[in-house]
Amino acid sequence: MALIKIYQRNFVSNHSTEEIISEFPCFRLAKMILSQLSVMVPKVLQVSRSPLMEKFRCVVDDCEDDRLIKGLQLEAAILLLPALFKEDPGLLFEVEGHAQTCPPDTPTPKMVLKGCREGHPMQYDHIVVMLDGQSITEENEDISMTLGPILCIYFLFGIQYPKGLKKTLTVLECVVLKMKDAAGLPVTIKRVYNSICA
Predict the structure, then answer these.
(1) pTM for the whole thing?
(2) Do 95 and 116 contact (CB within 8 A), yes or no?
(3) Beta pairing partners, 126
(4) What integer pLDDT is reported at residue 164 of this predicted model?
(5) Cα 123 to Cα 24, 89, 100, 111, 197, distances in angstroms
(6) Which long-range contacts (CB under 8 A, 24 or more apart) does 69-74 make?
(7) Which tens digit of pLDDT belongs to each residue from 56-98?
């Protein structure tokens, strides 16, 4: 990490903003997550067959504020993405007290949703990002803004995508980070990508 910080500091001080963002796309993640993923939300919510879908729908239906509804839908879509690829959502998030442990040799950053009422992922008090049993972030209050640090951790630490979440993270890398061209995605990933991004 010390070497990465030195490299980053030197790069930032000697390059233009455009070059910095190209080298470190994680610097513009917050805006990209909201703008890019919001396009996918309606289709993700339409095609998801996750058992959590009904729980998410109840929370969204109970809300009366249109702005809050859009935020809740975005959060639900993020948590449902792994289900679209038949992948393990436990590699992206876990509800505190309902942890699915990763193998010890697989350091996988994930959201831990804390203070969930009745174990419901959409009724959390706050979120932390954990990696290898260590808290990496301070308390966050929004799933969509927690996704940014998770993608950054994979990028900055050079962590390989776990097999059980590889398709989901590849699509996020393509849609959010713009580091992959959708045309080059494997057929199985491209099919789902086209169904939610077209």
Answers:
(1) 0.77
(2) yes
(3) 114
(4) 92
(5) 33, 17, 19, 14, 27
(6) 70/38, 70/41, 71/142, 71/144, 72/122, 73/41, 73/42, 73/45, 74/34, 74/37, 74/38, 74/41, 74/143, 74/144
(7) 888 888 888 877 888 888 888 889 999 888 999 999 999 887 6
